[in-house]
Design goal:
By secondary structure, the protein is of the alpha/beta class. Helix 4 packs across helix 5 and helix 10 packs parallel to helix 11.
């Protein structure tokens, strides 16, 4: 694939825009590809990646759109479990850039990525597309679809600088995907924050998923099952998981839990097993502070990692935010993580941000190819 094209994509500004005006202009210029297939639209603070994967895996030829990616941009766009090919990615980007220049449309990175997914799903004539929101819901680029079902998995504090400082404000943003008359499935962790009232105002049936134990894995499975039952689809994909969701390789567990809500669920899943954490956080300061507090309260050793990624906090920033004294060694991920894994007996849990996973696999010399479902 042309390196120039993918570099051009990643050079596009990532700042979210107010409103969906640009995204609507872009999809109209493309012939509204998002109207060529039925859609399940999924939002939530945590769990949406797992739920979308399970739903899509239950269909023979479903489109799946998730974000962010862990290793390669192509992960974000899948059909029938297969990542978009390099050739299709290149052709899609060429078409998008040409349309944007011709019509003077200035999309951001996520709007381009979302439009590319819509184009690919229309081209592949998918049975259904399962879309994960990128940030929030109301103003998210994915929210130009007319879904047949919406799903909100959970509500927790995350991206508060954009979505709001209270759980109710965050719920209102995520509840922005609810459409008039379209049923909305609410996971146990999404109930009680005002989304039921949004559904009532829009005459959208609210389908409430009952709590099913302490495990977030069981909870996400149940949410996906309820969605599939509503769609009258087989439930054959309920065991499917995206990478780095409580994924154990040897003595290392990789998990993309990155906020207090997700990390608390991770601790419940770990139970009483002896562990030590190797963590790094992105520049969402509130999520980092609250996440580090959760880990510190667990009493397990916490090693802080410096990850060479522009969206990650530096080691000195992590040290300043950590409530107490970090476990040693802490430092550059390529130097510290292999040493931790080789010199301690406990299970090592790598978590704190999706952006550290690629560096973690590289540091541990784990050669892996992203598997299909």
């Amino acid at each position: 694939m042309s390196r120039e094209l993918i570099d051009r994509l990643f050079a596009v500004a990532r700042d979210p825009k107010e409103g969906l005006r640009v995204m609507r202009r872009l999809t109209e210029a493309l012939g509204s590809p998002q109207k060529q297939f039925p859609v399940v639209h999924v939002a939530g603070t945590n769990g949406k990646g797992s739920v979308t994967t399970k739903i899509a895996a239950s269909f023979r030829h479903a489109g799946l759109y998730t974000s962010p990616h862990l290793h390669t941009f192509r992960e974000r766009i899948r059909v029938g479990g297969k990542m978009i090919s390099e050739d299709d990615l290149e052709k899609g980007l060429e078409h998008l850039f040409a349309i944007c220049e011709e019509r003077n449309i200035p999309p951001n990175f996520f709007e381009l990525a979302t439009a590319l997914a819509f184009l690919h799903f229309a081209q592949e004539k998918v049975d259904i597309a399962v879309l994960e929101t990128g940030l929030g819901g109301r103003l998210d680029a994915t929210n130009v679809v007319d879904p047949k079902l919406t799903v909100i998995t959970s509500i927790g504090m995350d991206h508060s600088e954009v979505l709001g400082e209270t759980l109710e404000a965050i719920a209102a943003e995520k509840g922005g995907i609810v459409k008039p008359g379209v049923p909305c499935i609410l996971g146990p962790g999404a109930q009680g924050y005002g989304i039921e009232e949004i559904c009532k105002d829009l005459a959208s049936p609210a389908i409430l998923v009952e709590p099913c134990g302490l495990s977030f894995i069981e909870e996400n499975r149940k949410i996906a099952q309820v969605a599939l039952e509503y769609l009258q689809a087989p439930t054959t994909g309920l065991d499917a998981l995206p990478p780095c969701r409580f994924e154990q390789i040897g003595r290392v567990i990789f998990d993309v839990a990155h906020n207090a809500h997700g990390l608390e669920a991770l601790l419940r899943q770990l139970g009483d097993r002896p562990v030590r954490f190797a963590v790094a956080f992105s520049k969402d300061r509130r999520s980092a502070v609250e996440g580090l507090q959760v880990l510190a309260a667990s009493k397990a050793p916490v090693h802080l990692l410096e990850v060479p990624h522009s969206r990650m906090l530096k080691l000195e920033q992590l040290c300043d935010l950590f409530p107490g004294r970090a476990a040693q060694p802490s430092g550059r991920i390529d130097q510290v993580l292999p040493w931790i894994v080789n010199h301690f007996q406990e299970t090592v849990v790598v978590c704190g941000s999706c952006y550290l996973m690629d560096s973690a696999f590289a540091a541990l010399k784990i050669r892996r190819f992203l598997q299909d479902y």
